[in-house]
Amino acid sequence: QVQLVESGGGLVQAGGSLRLSCAASGLSFSDYAVGWFRQAPGKEREFVAAVRRSYSGTYYADSVKGRFTISRDSAKNMVYLQMNSLKAEDTAVYYCAGSPAYSVRSYYSASNYNYWGQGTQVTVSS
Fold it and tell me: What was the pLDDT predicted at 55?
């Protein structure tokens, strides 16, 4: 049984940092592209960042580029999202997800991800 579990969310002041973690069981992140998505109240789930299965490429939404960094630790089967210079508009539930897709274009759409975590809340106070 595949399970993804996010952790590291919390309450932080604007300008602060958080690091989210995504742990997988029943699935090797080495065989999947991994993405982070977020969903704010009343809004649709949106792409945040993704890392290719070979870790040869990382991809970001324009809104987080230069502030967020996605990384993978294959030995621990973990993926991280380092979030710096947080803004109030970053407040959302953050989800990690696994995709078997190879196409970079597919990483930006939630419909191309097969496995999802339960989410972790990030709240940025202004």
Answer: 60
**Dihedral (CA of 61, 47, 49, 120) sign:** positive
Q: What share of the chain is helix, strand, coil (3-state, %, to 5)?
A: 10, 50, 40
The reported pLDDT for the residue numbered 89 is 97
Least confident window among 39-48, 85-94, 100-109:
100-109
Do the Cβ atoms of 79 and 72 come closer than 8 Å?
yes
d(CA 72, CA 74): 6
Long-range contacts of range 101-105, CB-CB < 8 Å, 24 or more positions apart? 101/33, 102/33, 102/53, 104/52, 104/57, 104/59
**What is the rounded distance in angstroms from the CA atom of residue 3 to the CA atom of residue 118?**
9
Give me 13's structure tokens: 């002041």
